[in-house]
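re: ur question from yesterday

yeah so i grabbed the chain u mentioned. its 511 aa long if i counted rite. heres the sequnce exactly as i have it in my notes:
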Amino acid sequence: MGLIAAAVLAAWLPDLGLPLGNSDDGRILGLFGLQARNFWELGIVDSRFGAAVEPYVRAVYDVAPRADPPLVAVTYAHHPPLQVIMAVVSTGILGDSTAALRVPSLLVGGATVVFMASLLRGRGLAWGPTLLAVAAMASTGFYYVYARVSVSFSLQVAAIAAVSWALHHAEPRRRDTLTVAGFAALAAMQSWIGIAAMVLVMLWLLAGRQRDGRQRRAPVSWPSGGRQRRAPVSWPSGGRQRLLAAVVAGTALGAGATALWMLSAAGYDDLANQLAIRTGNEVGGTSGPTFTFGEFLARQWRFVTEEMLVPVWLRVLLVPCLLAGLIDRRTRAPTAITLAVAAALTFGVQQGAWVHRLWNFPWLAPVTIGFAALADWVRRPIPRRWRPLPAALAAVVIAGTLVAVASGSTRQRYITDPAEAGTVLEQVGRLSGSQLAWAVPPVTSPTWVSYYLRTRVIALDEDDLGYLDESDVVVLSPDRVPGFFPEGALDDPLAVHGDFVVISASKLLPE
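ran it thru and got these structure tokens back, copy pasting raw so excuse formatting
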């Protein structure tokens, strides 16, 4: 288990100081970077407790160039705050740098390996299937690309693991209940699906019984025919009651802190507007073309089959793994919990899943749990002396997958190629006198542009040419030059690297 976590961190370590670029990695960490920087530069109150994203202005509010944006347009608090807190602490200790932004995310991503292994062992799976399942998870492109940016199911898995181990004791120890409460609070502060998962854990504890079959029965009476009748109603045992109380207390603490932060920073109207966008089926999130459910399913499968986000061998095993996880009594509860929240995220907030590949990342949790159950089923009929052979073959396939992901086109497409945009901005540095930066597709959601240039960034189209000033800069790809650019606009750029270039907006102004 430790070796697998170390291998994952070793695969990520070369990217510790990688520039933030035109990718989910750059978009997410760029946002955290702005929030952390504003926290330290503006102070706790003026930064809205780390929710301020100045100078970035959210496009959904359609603020005119050079107009003063409303406070809500430079505030982002749509997700629980744990990742923001980690970014604030890390940059406070290590300084304002991309490496400081990556350190907590890499540590959480590496810890996910440990948490998943702990969950599987806590549910009674042998070490062999556990290690194969965890290694399979860590070898996928989904894990390599997205676990490193804290968009993870890590803490909900940790909380379920803590509950599983605590259930080994008829009377959970004090440290067990404190651990469960702590992980429940952290899960509720990490993600929306973390909160949902903790609610399902509560239902699991309410519905379940101790392994020894003992249960408490409380008499419940109701009038019938003029006299009282009594019937037994099952309640969780004393041990489960304490664990349930720990999960409830931890979740309430984490969810309460999340609600307080979000409502004080963003406000009800902004959150309601974001919810309406995410639960709709408009391609761009606002008024415009819509997608059908069939188109949605086709797009999600295309995301899954791109590069090696999900390796071919795991695509074949997806359904068998999920079925095995749900059928096996040991893994049924954690598989059902993680599957339910993953499905809710994908299908309940479809617009987000339409836009972002990472929306499907949480499906990796139930698939991994089911993989362990399936591997355990397969190994049992095999004579003990022959078991190392298929395990070794599987390990070779998994190791080869990780090597291919970390050194091949998956890394290039999702990590290194997009980072070239950040390299360009590092070359330019902070431009004195520049008031605006303009972005041309494929440069999208450019929080990272504001992070590097410390200026507002706006999507540029032909109607915006009248707003340009010669001090502005434009970020674009030479392969996607708009038709309204004059000839020679890319001559003598301010900076160029790979597929990205920065030019002065003066090149677009009439002479």
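noticed a couple things. The radius of gyration is 25 Å. also The CA atoms of residues 342 and 362 lie 5 Å apart.
anyway ttyl
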